[in-house]
Amino acid sequence: MAVQTLPTAAPAPTAGRPALRALAYWLVKYRRSWRGSVVSTFANPVLYLAAMGVGLGSLVNRSAGAAQLGGVSYLAFIAPGMLAAAAMQVAAGEATYPVMGSIKWDKTYHAMLATPLSTRDVLVGHLSWMAVRLTTGAAAFLVVMALFGVLHSGLAVLALPAAVLTGLAFAAPITALAATQSRDTSFALLWRLGIMPMFLFSAVFFPIERLPAALRPVAYATPLWHGVDLCRGLTLGTGLTPARAALHVAYLVLVAAAGYAAARVTYRRELVS
User: Residue 31 CB: number of other CB atoms within 10 A?
Assistant: First the structure.
């Protein structure tokens, strides 16, 4: 008599693999449009550094500005700040319209949820794509900085993960917000009242000590200031102690983690309920 054997249970999928499937969608989508972004990815750093660092910087340097910037040129001073600010801007761009559109307009998230993917997989996959975009953008910016000769430390290579972490500290909270929006008017307010003021007043273009004393605590509380100070210390090789670097990293990780936790809630509420 033949002995009937019971079918064995299929092995559980590797943790995180469904999120990689969600990430694959964004990679395939980007494959159609990457040519249009390559020019801006390299052109924007060149234009920013040439205009602000070389053009305006020549005036600052002639007016003894280098002595007030720790002995470095104005170009070397603002370049790492622009790196962190560019990460913030890329994160804001990727976490606003693409997120809201995936829920309200083209229903990309709903299509993903029709498969075995969960809301967590959808969220982690999209945030992973944002991390990829941040990595490529920051790497291109660092290459341009190297061509301009403003990397003064061997630690400059660590500015790449620092910039990515800075971007994620914006991407995760903005993703949580964008998932709740039914109209894009709030994004204009976000840029005008959030992104642009931080870009102008978070030590990108001048030392934070130049701000009025009453405004400095506000600047210190922004993720961008922590990213700017971290990237600047790594590229210049001065003014960044291990304790100070750890404080910046911990703050950025905390903000990104809080944004991720909030996004878990908003995604579940908008996509499941």
Answer: 9
d(CA 54, CA 91): 27
CB atoms within 10 A of CB 89: 18
- The pLDDT tens digits of the residues spanning 49-58 come to 888 777 777 7
- Under DSSP, the state recorded for 66 is G
Domain boundaries, the chain: 39-56+69-271
- pLDDT tens digits, one per residue of 184-243: 899 999 999 999 999 999 999 988 988 999 999 999 999 999 999 999 999 998 889 999
Alpha-carbon torsion, ordered 153, 154, 157, 162, to 10 deg? -50
CA atoms within 13 A on the CB side of 119: 18
Tokens of 36: 């249009």
Rounded-to-5 percentages of helix, strand, coil across the chain = 75, 0, 25
| Residue 209 structure tokens | 């000590």
SS3 256: helix
Q: Is 206 left (phi over 0), alpha (psi -120 to 50) or beta?
A: beta
**pTM score above 0.85:** yes
Q: Give the E-state strand segments of the chain in sequence order.
A: none
pLDDT surpasses 80 at 272: yes
Gap between the Cα atoms of 235 and 51, Å rounded: 20
Q: Which residues contact 43 (CB under 8 A, 6 or more apart)?
A: none
